[in-house]
Amino acid sequence: MSPPANDHTNRQAVAVIGAGYVGLPTAATLAHFGHHVVLAEREQSKLAALRAGRMPIVEAGLDELVAGGVAAGNLHFTDSAVDAVAGAAFVFLCVPTPQSADGSADLSYVESAAKEIASSLEPGAIVVNKSTVPVGSANMVEQVIGRPDISVVSNPEFLREGTAVLDSLNPDRIVVGADDARAAAKVGELFSSTRAPLIVTDATTSETIKYASNAFLATKLSFVNALAGLCEEVGADARDVLLGLGYDKRIGFEFLRPGPGWGGSCLPKDTRALLHIASEAGYDFSLLAGAIASNDEQLSRVAAKVETACGGSADGATIAVWGLTFKANTDDRRDSPSLQIAHRLADLGATVQAFDPTVDAETDVPDLHDLQLQADPYAAVAGARVLVVLTEWDEFRWLDFSRVLAAMAEPNIVDARNLLDPAAVRRMGFSYTGIGRQ
Ligand code: UGA
C-alpha cells in the first residue's frame, strides 16, 4: 500500500455518516489521504467491531487501511452523527438508499440523517451526497437542512465491492456537482492526491452520471450474457467471441464475463431507479428496460441448464451449490443472482446443499432457510446429482475434483461463471455445461 499522502494534502476535518460498503472505505481512504476523519455509525455491533479492529464487511485491504488511519490519529469512530459533524468542514452522507416498491430510491435515511445534523453543522460546512440518490436529491438535502450557509455537493461513488480499497485509492475519475461551483471544487480537492481526472459540474448532471455509469455497465453485461446464449445456439465459443470484442479499444475487456446475471446492491437498484426517473420524465428508455428483462431471463436460463443436467426436472433432486454472494471477494448477498438461482432450485423441489466461504453453516441465517448450508465444498456435493458453480470464488478452482467426483451421485457440473477448465473436468469423467461454451 502506498504511504499516506499527507505531504501533498491540505488537511481537512471530515465527518462520514454511515460505515457501510461505501462509508467505511470512503472514511478510511480520506484518512489515508491525510484528512482528519470522524466516522459515525449508529449500529453498536458494527462500531464495536471497528473499535476492536475487526471489519464489519469482507473487503480486501480494508483492515490495513483502517488500522493505518487509526494509528496515524486520522480516523475516529462515534455512534453519534451530531458529534461527528462538530468541527467538520465536510460531511459525507453515506447512508443506504434502498429500493422502494415502485423501483425508485428510498431517500428516508438520507433525509433523516440530514435532519439530524442540520442544526449542528459548522457555519459554512459542505454536505456531500455520496450515496446513490435520484436526480434532484442535492436540492432536497439543501431544503431539509434549510441553512443558506450550507452547500450540498453531489460526489457519486464508483467503487466496486470486493475491490473497494483499490478503487477508492485509484479512482478512474472524481465527479463533483453543485449549484455552488466553489463548494464542488473544494470537495474535489479532498481527493487531489489521487491525481484522478476531476469533473466539476452541476448537481443534476453529477447525479445522472452515477446512474448512467451503472446502467451502461448493466446493459453491457446483459448484452454479453445474451450473446453467450446466442453462441450456445450457433455453436460459437463465447469466450473467443468476447476476446475478439475486447481487443477493440472502444469496447475493452472489462465487464465482458458472462455469468448467471448481474446483481448486487447497485446495478439492479440503480437500473430500476433510472428507469423510474425516465418514466417520471415521460421518456421511454426501452433499451434499459430490455437490459433488465434480459437479466431476469439469464437467471431462468441458468436454472434451466441445471434442470436439464438433472434429467429434465429438479424436483426431488439433490443439488450442490457453490457460492451465494453476488460476486466473489465480498460477503454481500443483496440481490445476488447466485442466491436467487439457489432459491429457485429449492422452489422447484430440489434439496439444495450450499457452500459459500463467507457463510457460516452453523449460524442461523434467515434468508437461507430453504438451503442446507454446508461447512465445506466437499460436504455440499455429497450425494448430489448436479454441482452448480454460482459465484466465482477462486478457491473453487483449486479443489480436489477427484474427491468431488467420488462424493457425487452423478458427475454433472453446471458452471455459471465459466470458472472451471471444461477439458480438465471432462477428462475426469464429469459432464460439463458452461455459459456460452460447448
Ligand atoms: C457496481 C459498479 O461497478 C461500481 O462502479 C459502483 O460504484 C457500484 O456498483 C455502486 O453503485 O456502488 P458492484 O455492485 O460492487 O459495483 O459490483 P460489480 O463489480 O459492478 O458487479 C456487478 C454484477 O455484475 C455482479 O453480479 C457481477 O458478478 C456481475 N459481473 C461483473 C459479471 O457477471 N461479469 C462481469 O464481467 C462483471
Structure description:
With 438 residues, the chain is of the alpha/beta class. It has helices at 23-32, 44-51, 62-71, 81-85, 108-117, 137-145, 164-169, 181-189, 203-234, 238-246, 267-280, 286-309, 337-347, 377-381, 401-407, 422-427; strands at 13-17, 36-40, 75-78, 90-93, 126-129, 151-154, 174-177, 198-201, 318-322, 351-355, 372-373, 386-389, 412-415, 431-433. The strands form 3 sheets. Strands 3-2-1-4-5-6 form a 6-stranded parallel beta sheet, sandwiched between helices. Strands 11-10-9-12-13-14 form a 6-stranded parallel beta sheet. A two-stranded parallel ribbon has the order 7-8. The radius of gyration is 23 Å and the shape is globular. The protein binds uridine-5'-diphosphate-glucuronic acid. Uridine-5'-diphosphate-glucuronic acid is lined by residues 132, 157-161, 214, 217, 221, 255-257, 259, 262-264, 266-267, 270, 326-327, 337.
